[in-house]
Amino acid sequence: MKFARLLLVLPLLLSIVACEPRDRTTGDKVKDKVDDALDRRSNEKLRDAGEDVRDGAKDAAKDVGGAVKDTAKDVKDGAKKK
């Protein structure tokens, strides 16, 4: 009985996995950009917060990269003085 259920459910699961999301058209992308500029997107506050986190992470990565380069330069200059 359980095997028969598995045989019924398996094709359904395979068909769901095989589905691919449709590609976004240029019109969809433009509409999203316009809605973003006018703050009309669904869940706008949540999306804006996510974008702020993303931008903050990029800035932090740049700062860390700069600090690492400065530290490496200081270490190299210190080794030359000895």
**Strand-residue proportion:** under 5%
Structural class by sheet pairing and helices: mainly alpha
* Count of beta strands: 0
What number is the mean pLDDT? Answer: 84
Distance, first to last CA? 80 Å
- Following the backbone from N to C, one meets helices and strands in this order, namely HHH
Work out the helix count. 3
Low-pLDDT segments: none
Indicate the radius of gyration in whole angstroms.
Answer: 26 Å
Major pleated sheet: none
Task: Note the overall shape.
Answer: flat
User: What percent of the residues sit in helical stretches (DSSP H or I)?
Assistant: over 70%
Keywords:
82 residues, 3 helices, flat
How would the blueprint of this fold be written?
Elements: H1 2-18, H2 26-37, H3 44-81
Would you kindly provide a written description of the structure presented here, covering whatever features stand out?
The structure is a single chain. By secondary structure, the chain is an all-alpha fold. It has a domain at 46-82. The protein is 82% helix and 0% strand. The chain has three helices and no strands. It has helices at residues 2-18, 26-37, 44-81. It is flat, with a radius of gyration of 26 Å. It starts with a helix and ends with a helix. The mean pLDDT is 84.
Structure summarized in a few sentences:
With 82 residues, this protein is mostly helical.
